[in-house]
Target: Type I restriction enzyme HsdR N-terminal domain-containing protein
Amino acid sequence: MDEHDIDAYINQSYQIIESNPQMDEENTKVKLIQPFLELLGWDLYSSEVVLEYTVPMASGNTRVDYALMLGDSPVVFVEAKPIHATLTDTELRQLRSYMRQELAVDWGILTNGESFEVLTKDRHQNGVKEMSVLTFNLDDLRIDPSFLSLLSKESIHSGKSDEVAEQIGRTNQAIQDVKTNEDQLTESIVASIESTVGDLPIDLTQQSREFVQNLVTLLHDQRRFVSHTTPSSESPILVSQSYDEDSTDSVGNLPASYDGDSHTINTGFEGYVIRFSDGAVVPDSESEPHTKQNMNMTAAVDYLITKYALTEQIEIPYFPSNARKNCLINTEPLHPNGDEMRGAYELVDGHYLHTALSTSGKQNNLRDLVDNIDMEIEFLGDW
Model:
């Protein structure tokens, strides 16, 4: 994929958007989305691109805006929205439902011509689950265009894209297995260390449990490739990175830059920044970066309560999946056994949040919370 062609496409798209920011859906398709498909190598004037492809649904037939074909079978669905529209969970659920009806469709793209979200099928779950793996906008393409090859005709036809999806699926299964067997893994580590070196002057069980939980964090990192590929990469790769603890799944518009060290990514964010898959960032652009992790942790939970009524969707007191004694959220600054909730911060709705946790503990518990509302989260800047 030629970088000059990508630059020309980005510049042309911005010129079109600036001249007509309220374009309707049809104009958005013709002027922004169809050039994007051509950039990926798909021939709009051949049988490999079908417009208004009919998808059978339980309630009757519906149509998806574009189907990218391999022979007679669709392999990618593209759902278009007008440039002024925000991509929402409603549209994502709609695209997921379309993909579910066609067994051969492993990839889906939701776009308004400026922002893009990519779905793929995870066949390692019980049943097939459509998951979001990539979110980017035109600015991200200018920074690192290499991940476009994931959706190119060449990658789809050669099976390279399927290899990426397979790796994501295996990693998801590993994350699930580690979480499910956390107690057993912790006990095995403790037993192995004690049999080798004997008693140690530390809480070996707690340290072993944190090791297992950190393994989940590393697997999350391994699964993500958005803005974590080096400029020399020819195709998307799944790598772990170390700008200190975590960065998540392919969400939002990450202005990352490669700094020349194969193990370090400069995200361009300062402070303890948290970003959600709906594009929200804590703290927002009008706020000063917080100097304490627990302040941003609290602000992030406040956002989930305000925007998604989080505490109405979970049982209070709320115990994360990895908790055995201390709850994460309660109606008072106490744990259910009566112990004081150390590092308790009052939330926007009057509940209390337990923040006296390690860095990985804060990250894992926030991930646990967003799982309740089918979202993703990433940690940027000083994390």
Remarks:
- DSSP finds eleven helices and 14 strands in the chain.
- The two ends are 34 Å apart (CA to CA).
